[in-house]
């Protein structure tokens, strides 16, 4: 097919009347030429016209041949099929609306999951040539199971730009939180060439420039994202040049970036600021650039492969002294594509979406099975119509195509409605999550700048493909079944035995029941898991404990003074962030990778961790220079299987991944105590004090912890506007909260599945009883009792229900077996019992009860058939 044929077919579809008029004019021209030739030979006009027609042939037949030769007959047939389909919908509007609503519900739910999947893993940021952007990471092997990242700092970034030539240009960035005019905001600190490398211009004002990032003569300026512009300033057009206060420092707004630009993040920050001003946002590292870990992203040179660039960067990193760590070993560079998605940051994240697609896809499958049952029933009622068309010469293929056209139109209409449903579902789900989130975590969600996204072309294509696949699932089998007729019996008005789709109907009912059983079993399992998590011992004291995180280190002393003097605070402890290290002893030649944390001497008492042997830290031991350490029971057993670790000497190597200034330098320590594992083996504890920068504060409070949190929140906001405070009861309850979300998702899906299954079972059985009224009347006239008729109807329906229950329970068990073989089994095994007999029993009982109630009404209706009236009508 050439371009001319393609354009002709498009014209035939868009303007059929014009194409037909041109064909008639062309045929008339050729007939007139043939007539003129006979007139020139001396024939009369009538004879010339007759000779021309005889030679030319029947004009309608020639027109059909021309259409076939041009390839526009298919377009003409498609147009006729569409018009005929709309007439059929007008004759049965309720059935058409039911089909559209049922399929739209399934498509909308699956499209909602795909929309989120598209945001996180598929939608590339709106920048110039995003495929050329790669994030640079450095890794150094420390132990057989440990490959920590080597920290990239600003001096390392500047050195890489000077000393390597793998990138045409590269920028650095750092995500952070701040307070802008007293409101929480997300910021991205970037180098001055950030927008230049990405090729993005401002929608208002200007973007950040290289001169803004000068550490000596730079300016305190910011560029707002489109989201931050509306969130913080309500889209004020006069925002350019306005001065705002960020963490007690003045900044000038110089630009607003375009809508849709996310800055290589899944969600955009509220604003971008020069990286040279990082010290103003991170007081703990002010004046020490080598203590700030940054992300480096470069645009790969044309013609240079990622493998070659990786090798060149590895050579450069291995020769850089700042990357040398006490553990030794070669440093390996790695390049990860960065296009504004999480696929590069978390390559395995897509696996987390598979259960969601499966669960939401079950609703679509149930809906399609419902529609297929409905179309099978309609096929029986349309036997006479289809039989007449077949007897008049229509081929079976032509009838099937016409029926599939009807199904496709319904599927496309369902896709359009599904787009609206997916949008409403996402907005409702987001609102529900924010409304039910514990108040301590609500500010964190508000900082994500996440809203129900507008669909892009990927979502539209997904819906169209989903409509095509759904059409094949619910439309093909009924179309094939409806055209399998005995014409003689059909023309007499009799229902052909082959057209009674009993097996297909039973198979579809079994599919619906099995999917409903699977979803309800999962819902009950998650519900029981949530109850188990709510009553599970978290391994630490949470009843009266609050955690405070300090962002402005310049105000730490004032915060500590306020906390210690507050009447609701009974004790204050400190905890540093977890870092990785390697420990070895003279008694064991092996090197063990451990987690290490610095804690104050009050920490174990505040959190309720028992020191099982040895002693706690003393008040005088407030820094790692004290040369003492406390280890967890698990690490003690690994290092000294046959003895007590108290008094033993250990060598602790701290890797570069901890970050200069935050890392604990490698040193020899004396173990003074062994602490019981707090739920997991943290490893090695070193001493610190609440005054140490970068540590969290843990408070034991008097009275209700939530009331204490609110009182402290009001008191501390003036000292550190960016600080965070939450109760440990809330932190420990997040596992329960996630299980509750899983329960509500599965219970909603299971409820929808059960409603669709019950409604489909009821409608199909009602139709079957109506179609079998003659057979039932004959049976009752021959002596069948009401019990016999009821048993007949119930046996026809409950058999596929039983098969579906067995299949759903078996599928749930198979999913559980697969889950137990994954790494996640160790994390959920103590809380979620995937082989819970009670969950299986309750779910199956609910489905059996619902199905029995659904089939009872048609069964009772069957017993009211009047045999005399039936035989008389026959």
Provide the fold topology.
Layout: H1 3-14, H2 16-40, H3 45-56, H4 59-70, H5 73-91, H6 93-122, E1 133-140, E2 149-150, H7 154-163, E3 167-180, E4 183-190, H8 194-198, E5 204-205, E6 221-224, H9 226-233, E7 243-246, E8 249-256, E9 271-274, H10 278-281, E10 295-300, H11 306-318, E11 331-337, H12 354-381, H13 383-391, H14 396-436, H15 442-446, H16 457-482, H17 487-491, H18 502-535, E12 545-549, H19 556-565, E13 569-575, E14 579-585, E15 592-599, H20 603-607, E16 611-614, E17 628-632, H21 633-639, E18 649-653, E19 667-675, E20 683-687, E21 696-701, H22 705-716, E22 724-727, H23 728-732, H24 734-771, H25 773-781, H26 786-820, H27 825-828, H28 837-863, H29 867-873
Parallel strand pairs: 4-9, 6-8, 15-20, 17-19
Antiparallel strand pairs: 1-2, 1-10, 1-11, 3-4, 3-10, 5-8, 6-9, 7-8, 12-21, 12-22, 13-21, 14-15, 14-18, 16-19, 17-20, 18-19
Helix pairs in contact: 1-2, 2-3, 5-6, 5-14, 6-12, 6-14, 6-16, 12-16, 12-18, 12-24, 14-16, 18-24, 18-26, 18-28, 24-28, 25-29, 26-28
């Amino acid at each position: 097919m050439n371009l001319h044929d393609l354009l002709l077919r498009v014209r035939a579809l868009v303007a059929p009347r014009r194409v037909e008029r041109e064909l008639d004019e062309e045929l008339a021209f050729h007939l007139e030429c043939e007539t003129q030739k006979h007139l020139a030979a001396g024939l009369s006009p009538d004879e010339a016209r007759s000779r021309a027609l005889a030679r030319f042939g029947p004009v309608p037949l020639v027109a059909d041949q021309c259409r076939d030769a041009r390839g526009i007959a298919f377009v003409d047939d498609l147009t006729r099929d569409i018009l005929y389909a709309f007439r059929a919908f007008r004759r049965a509007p309720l059935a058409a609306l039911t089909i559209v609503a049922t399929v739209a519900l399934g498509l909308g739910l699956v499209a909602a999951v795909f929309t989120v999947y598209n945001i996180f893993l598929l939608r590339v940021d709106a920048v110039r040539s995003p495929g050329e952007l790669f994030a640079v990471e450095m890794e150094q092997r420390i132990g057989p199971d440990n490959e920590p990242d080597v920290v990239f700092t600003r001096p390392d970034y500047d050195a890489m730009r000077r000393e390597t030539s793998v990138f045409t240009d590269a920028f650095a960035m750092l995500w952070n939180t701040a307070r802008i005019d007293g409101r929480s905001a997300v910021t991205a600190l970037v180098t001055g060439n950030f927008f230049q490398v990405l090729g993005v211009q401002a929608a208002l004002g200007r973007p950040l420039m290289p001169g803004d990032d000068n550490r000596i003569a730079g300016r305190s300026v910011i560029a707002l994202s489109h989201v931050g512009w509306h969130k913080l300033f309500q889209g004020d057009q006069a925002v350019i040049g306005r001065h705002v206060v960020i963490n007690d420092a003045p900044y000038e707004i110089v630009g607003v970036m375009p809508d849709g630009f996310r800055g290589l993040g899944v969600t955009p920050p509220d604003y971008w600021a020069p990286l040279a001003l990082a010290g103003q946002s991170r007081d703990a590292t002010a004046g020490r650039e080598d203590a700030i870990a940054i992300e480096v992203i470069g645009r790969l040179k044309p013609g240079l492969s990622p493998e070659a660039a990786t090798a060149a960067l590895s050579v450069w990193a291995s020769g850089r002294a700042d990357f040398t760590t006490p553990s030794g070993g070669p440093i390996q560079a790695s390049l990860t594509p960065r296009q504004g998605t999480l696929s590069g940051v978390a390559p395995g994240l897509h696996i987390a979406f598979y259960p969601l697609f499966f669960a939401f896809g079950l609703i679509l499958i149930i809906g399609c099975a419902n529609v297929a049952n409905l179309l099978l029933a309609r096929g029986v009622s349309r036997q006479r119509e289809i039989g007449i068309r077949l007897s008049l010469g229509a081929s079976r293929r032509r009838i099937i195509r016409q029926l599939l056209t009807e199904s496709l139109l319904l599927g496309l209409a369902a896709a359009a409605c599904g787009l609206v449903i997916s949008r409403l579902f996402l907005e409702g789900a987001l609102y529900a999550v924010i409304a039910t989130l514990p108040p301590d975590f609500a500010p964190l969600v508000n900082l994500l700048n996440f809203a129900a996204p507008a669909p892009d072309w990927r979502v539209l294509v997904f819906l169209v493909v989903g409509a095509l696949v759904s059409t094949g699932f619910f439309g093909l089998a009924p179309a094939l079944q409806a055209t399998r007729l005995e014409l003689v019996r059909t023309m007499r008005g009799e229902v052909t035995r082959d057209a009674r789709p009993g097996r297909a109907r039973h198979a579809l009912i079994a599919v619906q029941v099995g999917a409903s059983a699977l979803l309800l079993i999962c819902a009950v399992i998650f519900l029981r898991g949530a109850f188990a998590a709510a009553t599970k011992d978290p391994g630490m004291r949470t009843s009266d404990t609050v955690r405070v995180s300090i962002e402005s280190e310049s105000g730490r002393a004032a915060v500590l003074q306020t906390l210690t003097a507050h009447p609701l605070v009974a004790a204050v402890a400190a905890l540093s962030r977890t870092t990785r290290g390697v420990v070895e002893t003279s008694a064991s030649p092996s090197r063990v990778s451990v987690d290490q944390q610095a804690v104050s001497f009050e920490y174990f008492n505040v959190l309720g961790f028992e020191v099982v042997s040895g002693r706690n830290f003393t008040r005088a031991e407030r820094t790692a220079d004290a040369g003492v350490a406390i280890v967890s029971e698990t690490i003690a057993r690994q290092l000294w299987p046959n003895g007590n670790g108290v008094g033993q000497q250990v060598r602790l190597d701290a890797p570069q991944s901890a970050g200069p200034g935050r890392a604990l330098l490698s040193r020899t320590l004396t173990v003074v105590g062994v602490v019981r594992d707090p739920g997991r083996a943290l490893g090695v504890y070193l001493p610190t004090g609440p005054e140490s920068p970068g540590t969290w504060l843990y408070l034991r409070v008097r009275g209700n912890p939530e009331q204490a949190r609110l009182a402290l929140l009001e008191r501390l906001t003036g000292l550190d506007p960016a600080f965070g405070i939450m109760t440990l009861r809330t932190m420990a309850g997040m596992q329960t909260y996630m299980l509750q979300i899983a329960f509500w998702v599965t219970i909603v899906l299971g409820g929808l599945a059960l409603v669709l299954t019950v409604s489909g079972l009821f409608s199909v059985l009602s139709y079957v009883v109506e179609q079998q009224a003659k057979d039932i009347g004959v049976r009752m006239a021959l002596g069948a009792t009401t019990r016999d008729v009821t048993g007949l109807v119930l046996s026809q329906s409950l058999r596929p229900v039983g098969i579906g229950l067995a299949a759903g329970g078996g599928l749930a068990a198979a999913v559980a077996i697969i889950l137990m073989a994954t790494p996640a089994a160790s994390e959920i095994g103590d809380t979620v019992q995937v082989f819970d007999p009670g969950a299986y029993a309750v779910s199956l009982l609910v489905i059996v009860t619902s199905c029995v109630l659904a089939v009872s009404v048609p069964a009772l209706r069957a017993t009211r058939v009047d045999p005399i009236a039936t035989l008389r009508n026959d």
